[in-house]
Amino acid sequence: MRVSTHRILLFRLTLVIIFVLAFAFSAISKTQRVKTPNVSGTFYPADKKALSNMIDTYIDNASLTIAHGAIKGIISPHAGYIYSGPVAGYAYKSLAGYDYKTVVILAPSHHYFLKESIAIYKQGDFRTPLGDVSIDSDFAQSLMLENKYITHQPEVFDKEHSLEVQLPFLQRSLKNFKIVPILIGNDSYSLCQSLASSLAKKIHARNDILIVASSDMSHYHPKIQAYTMDKHTLSLITQFKPQQLFEDARQGASELCGTGAVVSLMLTLQKLGITNASVLKYATSADTAQSSQDRVVGYSSIVFAESKPNNDLKKGAKAMYTDVQKNILLKIARASIVEFIEQQTRLELNENDPVLLEPRGAFVTLKIDEKLRGCIGRLAAEMPLVKTIREMAIEAATGDPRFPPLRKEELEKVSIEISVLSPLKQMFNIDEIEVGKHGLLIRKGFSSGLLLPQVATEYNWTKEEFLQHTCRKAGLGQDAWMSNAQIYIFSAEVFGEHTK
Questions:
Q1: Please, which residues bridge with residue 364 across strands?
Q2: Where are the beta strands (DSSP E) in 266-387?
Q3: Which domains are assigned to the chain?
Q4: Which range (39-53, 154-168, 357-371) has the least confidence?
Q5: Residues forming beta bridges with residue 372, ordered by sequence position
Q6: How many CA atoms lie within 13 A of 66 on its CB side?
Q7: Would you say the pTM of this structure is higher than 0.90?
């Protein structure tokens, strides 16, 4: 009887030990599956609230003026947040309203040489001060089965920051997403092609996947030299030339620390039929952190999106607005001017046409006897078009610093012209400019100048003369567009009281 009791007690004790060990191993296993942050407290704040506030500020301060279709990929920089965060905010602000289930992050390896392989982290979570982000292990495993070059190499991620710094931005921009962390080198175009083929096959027709390429641009050149090199790089990206981008990077004509990541992103999207790239923001460390202009690092935010029919007017293209809608806008402009000059009040707007209630930028131009009498506009699409027209008409009549306020006796003599603008598109090759179709905006430092498309036609300017006069409008030298200037093009639908 005693032996039996002893055996029972021993058996129970054994079960308890097994349970405790199983629980301990489970806890250890779970801990090992959580990738702790490498640069929390250095590249970005370790405090949750401080980090959230910093990212939200960068995103809130980003001003988006470029329209596009559904976003399939972005390029975002990866330096310390005080340097690259203000630029990264643009890419992540563009993701507002999207519901991605999986985010594939392509990033360079700064500490391990990856020549014949692509490193992936296949399961577990990545931790940041904002919480844990889970890995889409099914997607990661399927990539490994599909591609022999993609292997689980967790040690490659141990010190890496390029992938990690994207996570807090993603956490503040998206909800309920998983990640596929991938590190790739810059030395093999064939590896980029191989990765792109595998990604395109797995993504196929899914609309809930985003690809993020993490990359800074030129490193430690004087600001003007950095701008020239980065301008060339951005031109290759927007013209969608991944192979030339890779070759130019190898030869030193371009600098992207994430060349392999960016090229792989472009090749993947190209296979999926996406070849539309838009630069949302470019800046250097001298711009964002007021650091030395002698040794700067370049940063850019770029989106890759489905083609979307835009409102750029091409020769023979259908007009944006019907004659009825144009008449409504012209009547609003005139009535707004009359009411403000005669009564110092603003016209009450009761328009319910949804087309005219869309946010659009626009200019209102006033002329008397074909001579300019005032011209004021708003680039950003921040308010309904009818309200933009009302406000710009009043400003053109009373707030153009080049002219005195319009007098009551001039109301019958003045003619009104409206230019409704398409979104801005940053340009990196002047061959993109079409005189007669495009207007120009040139920014350099704190100076900016804009000329509408019809101005170049009216004066019969060449492309170069159009650029020169836009620089003069900005108060710059006529050749300022050639170096370290941001050039944007846009189109406009122009109509007036006598030219509808």
A1: 376, 418
A2: 276-284, 296-305, 362-368, 371-378
A3: 33-305 (3.40.830.10), 323-421 (3.30.700.20), 425-496 (3.30.1490.150)
A4: 357-371
A5: 367
A6: 26
A7: no
